[in-house]
Amino acid sequence: MDKKQSRLKRALKVRSKIKQLKATRLTIHKTAQHIYAQVISEDGSSTLASVSTTQADIKLNLKNTGNIEAATEVGKLIALKAIAAGITEVAFDRSGFKYHGRVKALADAAREAGLKF
Fold first, then answer.
1. Which CATH number do you get for residue 72?
2. Residue 1 has pLDDT above 90, yes or no
3. Residue 89 forms beta bridges with which residues?
4. Could you tell me the residue range of the domain that residue 25 belongs to?
């Protein structure tokens, strides 16, 4: 099993547990250059809020889009958008990525901005 398949297997386990809880989920995805965050409804049919470092307004404020500083900014903005949409509590879906570095920075920033998970 290669690295990507292992990550996807871990992600499947987490998503099945979140599905049992019937919780709105904050999903992240990261690449070497960007980080993406989405708030997805309980049934998984719609995206309620999304933020990424590929968006022009966010990219202008950042020197580099693939570091912890960028992840912190994305975390703050996704929390603000989710709260504006009426969502205050979510389940954190890290998509099989380890909880450190950019993933941890995004989660901590979202918590500080008022999102509970």
1. 3.30.420.100
2. no
3. 116
4. 3-112
